[in-house]
Amino acid sequence: MEQKVRVLMQRYELGRLLGQGTFAKVYHARNLLTGMNVAIKVVDKEKILKVGMIDQIKREISVMRLVKHPNVVELFEVMASKTKIYIVMEYAKGGELFNKVVKGKLKEDAARKYFQQLISAVDYCHSRGAYHRDLKPENLLLDENDNLKVSDFGFSVLAESKCEDGLLYTTCGTPSYVAPEVIKRRGYDGTKADIWSCGVILYVLLAGYLPFRDANLMQMYKKIGKGEFKFPRWFAPDVRRLLSKILDPNPKTRISMVKVMENSWFKRGLVKEKPVITNMETKQISPLDAADGVFEVCENGDPIADSKQEQTKPCKLNAFDIISFSTGFDLSGLFDDDVHKKEVRFTSNKPASIIISKLEEMCNQLRLKIKKKEGGLFKLEGSNEGRKGALGIDAEIFEITPQFHLVEFKKCHGDTMEYQKLLKEDIRPALNDIVWTWQREQQQPQQLQHEGEVQEEQIEAISSQQIS
Ligand code: ATP
Ligand code: MG
């Protein structure tokens, strides 16, 4: 029987599934022209759109394209279809580093080698303005020569959307590797947060188990928050000293990257990497120039925002986003007026706490009952019996960055006309001072036309250029 071979872009023959994460499946593939083995990460657009993060993805992909380091999984190209984003990257043949740890703790020299390579990769990426924020075993891979390859650098957006406080509804994995300030959602420094995770990883390599363990998630959070852990008896004094400085719950006093690299335990047997010349150094192109043509360029410039810098105006949603929000690329929805739509969205450049108090104030004024449900969901209930019973509206807040949110109103019961009237005459005006823009007020016709050309299931090479 003939076997069905999936070929992407007439260039990549898709092979077996290598693994699966929250947002994506990763397949082995072969470049039909060069025979090179690659890994292709297939990201479900729908899942990303639900968390409203297209702009960051675009920015982060553009940063990734400029990052080249022997210990970072290289990004070759990005393609997209109507429903999927395909990220073609270097294939790490040796699989996950932690498959080794599962078999038992590593010898000190072996652990140190991986730790040195990890720090080298992380420090390099920090110098390029990229923070990982999701350093964990699944993202530490090995090549055929047993060298460490960090994957998912630059995709911190995906990491962020998973582990936040519930404004986003995607599930959060165990926080074992996440720095306390990230858990507490204080504005944090990406550098210091990554150093913490590197410390947890070093501990695990040497111990064979996690430093912060508890069957109860809350207890585990508490231990992380206090930096409460014990060293196994076989940890040497010098590595204990280093780990104590890394696993300091206060990011301000936590050791810096420079100091880690100066540490005597760290430096033992260190092989200096040859300097790598990157696109950034040779061509002096800004990450956003590089993203040009990959997706549309954001309007405000910055390549990748650390949450500390996110006070600045976030990117406005562009045509790509609006289309993406409209179901199934049905462009007609964009030109309808709001009247027949059940869902109405706006973006706000205010923190969630302000949006919530504004919603409460509005409900008070309009005599609507408001009840908080799980995550960022609020149930609004009309007090009057309408034509089809009392009006019920879901208001849901999605975080895009800590300072930028998307709020969606959706009628769940009651009369549509009454709902539309309430929205138009009462809700919209009441929210004026927190609204950045209502979703349908930002169409850019030329971009719409361009985006609309994407055919169903046709895989477009958004960036067909190989990055050398
Ligand atoms: P998440 O991204 O949801 O936090 P994750 O990192 O496990 O979790 P993916 O990045 O989607 O999810 O990767 C899934 C799995 O695929 C990884 O755990 C890894 O085993 C494998 N994998 C990812 N990238 C590569 C690669 N470049 N080469 C080989 N295997 C890979
Ligand atoms: Mg990963």
UniProtKB/TrEMBL annotation:
Its cofactor is Mn(2+). The keyword ATP-binding applies. Residues 312-336 form the NAF domain. CDD domains: CIPK_C, STKc_SnRK3. The chain crosses the membrane at residues 193-212. Residues 447-468 are annotated as: Disordered. The keyword Iron-sulfur does not apply. Residues 12-266 form the Protein kinase domain. Keywords: ATP-binding, Kinase, Manganese, Membrane, Nucleotide-binding, Serine/threonine-protein kinase, Transferase, Transmembrane, Transmembrane helix. GO terms for molecular function: ATP binding; protein serine kinase activity; protein serine/threonine kinase activity. It is an enzyme of class 2 (transferase). Its EC number is 2.7.11.1. It catalyses: L-threonyl-[protein] + ATP = O-phospho-L-threonyl-[protein] + ADP + H(+); L-seryl-[protein] + ATP = O-phospho-L-seryl-[protein] + ADP + H(+). One of its GO terms (biological process) is signal transduction. ATP binds at K41. Belongs to the protein kinase superfamily. CAMK Ser/Thr protein kinase family. SNF1 subfamily. This is non-specific serine/threonine protein kinase. It comes from Lupinus angustifolius. The lineage of its organism: Eukaryota, Viridiplantae, Streptophyta, Embryophyta, Tracheophyta.
